[in-house]
Amino acid sequence: MTFLITANNPNITRSIVIKSTYATAVEDMRLPPPLPARFIPWLALNLTGYLAAVQMMKKVYIHRYKEWM
Question: How far is it, in rounded angstroms, from Cα 35 to Cα 68?
Fold first, then answer.
């Protein structure tokens, strides 16, 4: 489910890729310093937690109002 949300919202993926790679040169931004190796698992954990929380809140909303938005 998390993969589907990320795949359907390319802004998350695009912002991570542009801000953390050499694609910044295309966007006329400074090249970032290299990220520490522990950043990627931290980022993955935070994104997974955020997307799981959103899914839980959607279920609560649907249970309460019997429809999605």
Answer: 39
